[in-house]
Design a protein that fits this description.
This protein is mostly beta strands. The chain has a single domain, classed as Porin (Beta Barrel), CATH 2.40.160. The protein contains two helices and 17 strands. It has helices spanning about 20-40, 50-60; strands at about 1-5, 10, 65-80, 85-100, 100-115, 120-125, 130-135, 145-155, 165-175, 185-195, 205-215, 220-225, 230, 240-245, 245-250, 255-270, 275-285. The protein has a 15-stranded antiparallel β-sheet that branches. Strands 1-2 form a two-stranded antiparallel sheet. A hairpin with a 6-residue loop joins strand 3 (about 65-80) and strand 4 (about 85-100). The chain is globular and about 50 Å long. The two termini are about 30 Å apart.
């Protein structure tokens, strides 16, 4: 486990092993509960008040503030093998002004724990580094954020099992709507294709769509559904998971803390190696100006 000072997150090397279904289901759900329960105890009561503006922007992927996130995707079972896997994400976002406009740059470095088809065991290490820059378009509506721009993925994986071995480039498009009090919704849509890299590795041409629905509750708590749907244009493989999770936003002097856990289950998939079920959890830090 990794202790961040605010949350316990399952680390890639702590991924569950074995094929005992009931036991493997209980453990990640317990981890998800700990993410919320331990955090609720760790935050002083005097710091738990959160205003509506902070609630609305805490889950906005286009919020024009500096951010640092620690997030973890546990996969309890993969199609075709039943194997489990884990990805721990170091993610940062930075607003910049360039080329006559405002941009939000987001970078992600995963630490993966994946099955290795060559050795039959597991590999742990750094995955492929991804960055996208979304140009923030003025919609004329302060409650509607819209951005679009390029993305790039570099083959930084420390093992073939942990990455694609390809340089890839494409587009990212984000929309987020905060107009309805107590309810936010939006999406993140990305596409990328490989243009260089190891000739021995398969070409990359894939898309991901992340619909986001956030329902505010009381005292900073909220319900969320934000599972990522994927489609591979090279193989026609796809995966459509749905999720329902719980999170909380806490506003402290100089930082807004957002922690969450979301169990996810696939309702449709095609191809091997797709996530059948898992738990996505994390703690996000925003640093308002």
């Amino acid at each position: 486990m990794i202790y961040t000072g605010f949350a316990f997150l399952p680390a890639p090397w702590g991924c569950l092993e074995g094929n005992q279904n009931m036991q493997s289901i209980r453990k990640p759900l317990l981890v998800a509960s700990l993410v919320l329960g331990v955090l609720g105890l760790a935050i002083p009561a005097s710091a738990q008040g959160t205003d509506s503006a902070a609630l609305a922007q805490a889950n906005n992927p286009l919020a024009a503030v500096k951010a640092f996130n620690l997030q973890n995707q546990f996969t309890g079972s993969m199609t075709g093998s039943g194997a489990n896997a884990n990805s721990f994400f170091l993610r940062g976002a930075l607003p910049v002004t360039a080329f006559g406009g405002d941009w939000l740059v987001r970078a992600t470095l995963p630490i993966n724990h994946f099955p290795d088809p060559v050795s039959g065991g597991k590999k742990t290490g750094i995955g492929d580094f991804n960055v996208f820059a979304a140009y923030l378009i003025d919609t004329g509506n302060p409650n509607l954020s819209f951005g679009i721009g390029p993305q790039l993925t570099a083959p930084t994986a420390t093992s073939d099992a942990l990455g694609t071995g390809k340089w890839s480039a494409g587009l990212a498009n984000v929309l987020f709507n905060t107009a309805t009090p107590g309810l936010q919704w939006g999406y993140l849509l990305t596409w990328q294709a490989s243009f260089a890299g190891a000739d021995s590795r398969a070409d990359v041409n894939n898309a991901a769509f992340q619909p986001m629905i956030i329902k505010q509750l009381q005292d900073g708590w909220y319900l969320r559904s934000a599972a990522i749907w994927t489609y591979d244009f090279e193989t026609d493989n796809y995966n459509i998971p749905i999720g329902l999770g719980l999170g909380r936003v806490v506003k402290n002097p100089g930082v807004i803390i957002n922690y969450f856990a979301e169990p996810q289950y696939s309702v449709a998939s095609g191809g091997n190696g797709k996530r059948e079920w898992g738990v996505y959890a994390g703690v996000n830090f925003q640093f308002p100006k």
